[in-house]
Specification:
9 helices, alpha/beta, Rossmann fold, 4-stranded antiparallel sheet, 34% helix
């Protein structure tokens, strides 16, 4: 397992006193048959530049829902989410899509790699979406070099042409991490990143995430039901009964 991770694009260290993302009073409910279940009941969280925050909670507590709202993947029914001082919950779907692709990176429990694409192509997906066909073609050499560098640093230089079905679970998650980092995201969202892996492989993936934060100053929000993993973040919050609390 490779123990190196990409270096930060910016030569200056992050300012950990500066707020980069803030969620205020987030509310969200779901209909289950004839009933409406209020999952989030006014969650608030301020994320500082360069901080690693873990949100812990039991399965079904709403952790992933909150993460998806903060990452502009889902909408809230009440409250606001500000990124760099602007409330994107009031913005158009086009702008939120731009945020997701350009400013945010995502790691999911089940990888979400495209089975018909190889490792290098899956890593390049974010750049393909961000750029027009002409722009991608014009910058093809630099973008390929960026993707290959990420994959090499994550120990996958020998897997560039392999498809997801030919990879182990840990290798698939490392491809997902490379894809998430492709556009140099300001915030990396990790949704149960070790939840689909055995203990040893999960530990390896957590090592990658921690080293990325420690060496590159990457801002990270991670949700997990694993208390031991959560305790490795700078700050731990617990989602309980629809609200966030400080971990004891």
């Amino acid at each position: 397992m490779a123990r190196t991770t990409p270096q930060a694009a910016s030569p200056t260290p992050p300012n950990k006193t500066e707020s980069i993302l803030s969620a205020r009073g987030i509310q969200r409910s779901f209909r289950m048959g004839d009933s409406v279940v209020q999952v989030l009941k006014g969650c608030s969280l301020t994320l500082r530049e360069g901080e690693f925050v873990a949100i812990e909670g039991r399965s079904g507590s709403g952790k992933s829902t909150l993460l998806h709202i903060m990452g502009a993947l889902d909408e809230c029914e009440g409250g606001a989410v500000e990124f760099e001082g602007q409330d994107f919950t009031q913005m158009s779907s086009t702008h939120r899509s731009w945020l997701r692709n350009k400013k945010f990176g995502f790691i999911f429990q089940f990888y979400h790699l495209l089975p018909e694409l190889n490792v290098l192509e899956n890593t390049l997906l974010a750049a393909m979406i961000e750029n027009s066909w002409l722009s991608f073609r014009s910058n093809r050499k630099a973008l390929h070099a960026r993707a290959i560098e990420l994959l090499e640093q994550l120990g996958l230089s020998h897997r560039l042409k392999h498809r997801p079905s030919q990879l182990s679970g840990g290798e698939r998650q490392r491809v997902a991490i490379a894809r998430a980092l492709m556009n140099n995201p300001r915030v990396l969202f990790a949704d149960e990143p070790t939840g689909n892996l055995d203990v040893e492989t999960g530990r390896q993936i957590m090592d990658v995430i921690e080293k990325l934060h420690r060496d590159s100053g990457q801002t990270i929000v991670m949700v997990t039901h694993d208390r031991a993993l959560a305790r490795e973040a700078d700050r731990v919050l617990v989602l309980k009964d629809g609200k966030l609390e400080k971990a004891e």
